[in-house]
């Protein structure tokens, strides 16, 4: 889920940044070269088409980046979300007034005022371009760093692997103790009995202590044979990922 959210945030931000760059570097300068009348006339349809696409991309990128931040707790996603999200209030508060003046049907499209509005709009739009490019860059770097970190096992993955080995070794020891008890009609007095009788080549290591030392569960003392092993547990005093001490596994 975290990867899907981060990919969606980056994809939407990159699309927004690409479109914004094109407008800033290509479309707006080109229409200004065609003269004020044509530039002001072309601005209206271009603005209406771009508004729907860019507003949707900015909103989607912001929301999915927030989701990625909540999923990963990485501040890079929060920072990127703030940058791409800032495009929306910046447009509504700062650029909207200029947009309305340019779209006003009473505007003299061949006037110096119209050209000043177009020049101002170009400068303001460049701010949105910078915000979106910065957000896209942060998102991309965060994904790359996350992929690189994925090549290194995390603390949780190492613990999970050790606990999996512990479960397997406990299962093996308990199974062998049961088989020994059935075959010999008595339980072993020590784990070494299992090795001497050929049930085990050697006592497995407790992965939580890195030693072949276990906490045996002993039966009541018998006057004839003494206490015998009926079960086994880890000898580690630490708490496991499920909240129980390993000695209770």
How many strand elements? 2
- Terminal CA distance: 32 Å
The coarse overall form would be rod-shaped
Strand content: under 5%
Fraction of helical residues: 55-70%
Q: How many individual domains?
A: 2
Helix vs. strand class: mainly alpha
* Main β sheet profile: 2 strands, antiparallel
Q: Mean of the pLDDT scores? A: 89
| Total helical elements | 6
- Low-pLDDT stretches are none
Can you walk me through this structure?
The protein is mostly helical and 249 residues long. The protein has 2 domains: 2-150; 157-248. The chain is built from 6 helices and 2 strands, in the order H-H-H-H-H-H-E-E. The chain has helices at 2-33, 36-72, 75-103, 112-150, 155-184, 191-196; strands spanning 214-218, 229-234. It has a two-stranded antiparallel ribbon. Helix 2 packs antiparallel against helix 3 and helix 2 (36-72) packs parallel to helix 4. The radius of gyration is 34 Å and the shape is rod-shaped. The chain starts with a helix and ends in a 15-residue tail after the last strand.
Please give a handful of descriptors for the protein shown.
single chain, 249 residues, mainly alpha, two-stranded antiparallel sheet
Write the layout of secondary structure elements.
Blueprint: H1 2-33, H2 36-72, H3 75-103, H4 112-150, H5 155-184, H6 191-196, E1 214-218, E2 229-234
Antiparallel strand pairs: 1-2
Helix pairs in contact: 1-2, 1-4, 2-3, 2-4, 3-4
Quick structural gist:
By secondary structure, the protein is mainly α.
């Amino acid at each position: 889920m975290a990867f899907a959210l981060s990919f969606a945030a980056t994809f939407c931000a990159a699309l927004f940044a690409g479109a914004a760059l094109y407008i800033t570097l290509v479309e707006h300068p080109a229409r200004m070269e065609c003269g004020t009348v044509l530039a002001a006339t072309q601005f209206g349809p271009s603005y209406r088409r771009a508004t729907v696409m860019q507003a949707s991309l900015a909103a989607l990128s912001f929301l999915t980046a927030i989701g990625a931040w909540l999923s990963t707790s990485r501040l890079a996603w929060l920072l990127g979300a703030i940058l791409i999200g800032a495009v929306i209030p910046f447009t509504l508060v700062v650029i909207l007034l200029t947009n309305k003046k340019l779209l006003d049907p009473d505007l003299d499209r061949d006037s110096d005022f119209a050209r000043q509005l177009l020049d101002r709009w170009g400068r303001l739009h460049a701010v949105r371009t910078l915000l979106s490019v910065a957000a896209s860059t942060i998102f991309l770097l965060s994904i790359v760093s996350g992929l690189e970190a994925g090549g290194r096992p995390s603390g949780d993955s190492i613990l999970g692997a050790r606990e999996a080995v512990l479960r397997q070794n406990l299962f093996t020891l308990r199974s062998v103790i049961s088989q020994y008890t059935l075959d010999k009609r008595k339980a072993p007095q020590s784990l070494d009995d299992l090795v001497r009788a050929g049930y085990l080549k050697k006592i497995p290591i407790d992965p939580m202590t890195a030693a072949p030392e276990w906490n045996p569960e002993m039966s009541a003392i018998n006057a004839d044979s003494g206490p015998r092993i009926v079960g086994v547990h880890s000898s580690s005093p630490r708490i496991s990922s499920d909240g129980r001490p390993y000695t209770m596994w």
